[in-house]
Write a structure and sequence with these properties.
The protein is α+β, with helices and mostly antiparallel strands. Helix content is 12%, strand content 13%. It is elongated.
Length: 121
């Protein structure tokens, strides 16, 4: 907030808001996980030596860690699809699958129950 008459009249080109990857401390790209992104205000200026402002300078490079084709899913992520510790995926047990009525091991029992019930009509 500004006192009346002290409001800025020009745009500041020095202070800029940017999104940084917390793993690389470089500008975040579309490949950086959202959980690794931080938005903050940085100084958009050049320095030839180290000063007190150096930690607040806008990084000039983009994140080298997260790139196209470079998965950010850790190998030990329990939700990782190809984790060898996971049980094998069975599409027949997927409740969202269109062709799933019952798991394969129960299909025959369900059919037998249906036919034995229909015999009583």
């Amino acid at each position: 907030y500004f006192a009346k008459g002290t409001e800025p009249t020009e745009k500041c080109d020095i202070h800029v808001k940017a999104t940084i990857c917390t793993e690389s401390n470089a500008l975040a790209t579309e490949y950086c996980p959202i959980s690794k992104q931080k938005e903050a205000v940085y100084l958009n200026k050049s320095e030839t030596g180290s000063t007190a402002d150096t930690p607040y300078l806008l990084p000039s490079k983009t994140c080298p860690v997260h790139k196209a084709g470079n998965s950010s899913i850790p190998d030990d992520d329990p939700l990782y699809k190809d984790d060898p510790q996971d049980e094998p995926y069975d599409n027949n047990n997927d409740p969202n699958s269109e062709d799933n009525a019952y798991p394969p091991e129960d299909n025959q029992n369900q059919l037998n129950d249906f036919y034995s019930y229909s015999d009583h009509w």
